[in-house]
Design a protein that fits this description.
Strand content: 15-25%
Order of helices and strands: EHHHHEEHEEEHHEHHEH
Largest sheet: 6 strands, mixed
Strand order of the largest sheet: 6-5-4-7-1-8
């Protein structure tokens, strides 16, 4: 039996958009219940509309110019890429505010949380964490527990751009299961008042398989089979949302949000290259 119900639950669906969710909402009972029983709408992302500044704006309530995160990293004077990380955030975060008001908080797989900061609760760092051998959790000993459970840090989706789409979907489904099981286990052993958790599988799918996530234009090979698998992965994510909703108190607060949307990419412009060519 669960010893404590969540007073607040924030679920992040990285990269999610109503363009793909609305047409299949009848197949997503948990999201549908939240939409029908609460309020929903389209959020405007940050400028720039990228994962690091957007999630940092969520966690701080401030725009990039104030919290200091604009991109995935920065180049030093030798043009060596330096990944963005949580130590560069200049503002107080939501979990620090919650702790200050005596609410223990779990932070799970939220981008821009590496390296993890001490928190009254627990933290498992998200996107831009270098590898499983790093100290990616607080308390630090949780990292070994997760490694022993077969925790998957992330999928390098760019490696699948020219690969079998079904292989990518299989691996994303496996990652979602591993992460979901790990989160529920941590909540059992480390009960908290509030939880902030981010699911990234939709973002990875849309980056690689956007055309299969939306209505067919008749040009994509094997559309029906791959589209059904994309929908199945979304249904799987919705089921894990349901597992978390079961842990919320009857008067608890629930928020579901995305950091940015998606769409087709028809061309790329490298502004730095263009500016360099202009002299």
């Amino acid at each position: 039996m669960l010893s404590r119900k969540l007073k607040a639950l924030v679920i992040g669906l990285d990269g999610a958009t109503w363009h793909t969710l609305q047409p299949i909402l009848e197949s997503l009972p948990n999201l549908r219940r939240l939409v029908q029983g609460g309020a929903s709408g389209v959020l405007h992302s940050t400028i720039p509309d990228l994962t690091p500044p957007a999630w940092t704006s969520f966690m701080t309530g401030q725009e990039p110019g104030k919290h200091g995160i604009f991109w995935f990293g920065r180049n030093d004077t030798n043009l060596v890429f330096d990944p963005a990380n949580s130590s560069q955030i200049r503002s107080e975060t939501l979990w620090q505010m919650l702790n200050r008001h005596c609410l223990s908080t779990a932070v799970f797989n939220v981008p821009m949380t590496y390296p993890p900061h001490p928190v009254d609760g627990f933290m498992v760092a998200g996107m831009l964490t270098p590898d499983l051998q790093s100290t990616f959790t607080h308390p630090a000993e949780l990292a070994k527990t997760l490694r022993d459970q077969g925790y998957i840090l992330d999928i390098r989706w760019k490696e699948y751009l020219n690969d079998d789409p079904l292989l990518l979907l299989d691996r994303l489904a496996n990652m979602l299961e591993r992460r979901g099981e790990a989160l529920l286990s941590l909540l059992d052993t480390h009960p908290v008042d509030a939880l902030v958790a981010v699911f990234v599988v939709l973002d990875r799918v849309y980056h690689c398989l956007w055309g299969y996530a939306v209505d067919s234009d008749g040009t994509l090979p094997d559309y029906e089979r791959i589209h059904k698998r994309v929908v199945a992965l979304t249904v799987q994510a919705d089921a894990w949302i349901g597992c978390l909703l079961e842990r919320v108190a009857t008067d608890g607060l629930v928020l579901v949000m995305s950091d940015h949307g998606h769409g087709p990419m028809r061309a790329e412009v490298f502004l730095n290259r263009w500016l360099l060519d202009l002299g």
